[in-house]
Design a protein that fits this description.
With 186 residues, the chain is mainly beta. Helices cover 13% and strands 36% of the residues. It is elongated and about 50 Å long.
């Protein structure tokens, strides 16, 4: 079992779900048509490399729910897009300038941490795709890779922390992305 999150984080996540849901819903349409990964990461038309420290991460779950990919009656898989912004980006998404790690957290409606994933993020931009919102890191999540998908929750929230490999200050999501998790039956 994964340990519960501290109450301060739980209050932040639960309170921010409602505020962030409107942004997530608006962004869903924009991210439904993802373009293919660029074949040439040195393409000048690609995303700008972060000019400064990455200061914010925005997670968008275009479908708003996990799907039951293994047929056991519990939602386990989804695709998300993580958008990074640096201190100079003025609203445009950026690619990282150095190696780092993106940690994605799935929290249940009671604040319990349900799953946690770690992804290496590198400057080669191979994980990035162009969306109508901007360049983002497209990531497939499967709960069964890190935990069990068999829990009773229906409402969940995804949050993220980007940590540069050089040890400089981490960047977090300004608010979580609301997602539907748990059983596919009532």
């Amino acid at each position: 079992m994964i340990s519960p999150l501290p109450q301060q984080i739980v209050r932040f996540l639960c309170g921010a779900v409602l505020a962030f849901s409107a942004v997530t819903m608006c962004s869903c349409e924009a991210t439904n048509s993802l373009a293919k990964v660029r074949e040439n990461p040195d393409d000048p038309e690609g995303p700008p490399i972060a000019a400064g420290r990455v200061t914010q991460v925005v997670i968008v779950a275009p479908r708003g729910e996990f799907f039951d990919s293994d047929g056991n009656g519990f939602r386990d898989s989804t695709r998300i897009v993580a958008f990074l912004f640096d201190e100079f980006s003025t609203g445009k998404t950026v690619a990282v300038g150095g190696d780092g790690t993106l940690r994605i957290l799935l929290v249940g409606d009671n604040g319990e941490r349900l799953a946690s994933w770690m992804f290496p993020i590198t400057p080669d931009r191979g994980m990035m795709e162009q969306t109508s919102y901007g360049w983002g890191y497209v990531i497939d999540l499967d709960i069964n890779d890190v935990a069990t998908d068999q829990f009773p929750h229906h409402d969940g929230a995804l949050a993220a922390i980007y940590t540069p490999a050089d040890g400089s200050r981490s960047a977090t999501t300004s608010g979580p992305a609301a997602v539907l998790v748990g059983p596919t039956f009532e």
